Amino acid sequence: VQLVESGGGLVQAGGSLRLSCAASGSSRGIDAMGWYRQAPGRERELVAVLSSGGSTYYTDSVKGRFTISRDNAKNTLYLQMNSLKPEDTAMYYCAAGLRYESSGEFDYWGQGTQVTVSS
Question: Quick check: 80 and 98 in contact, CB under 8 A?
Answer without folding.
Answer: no
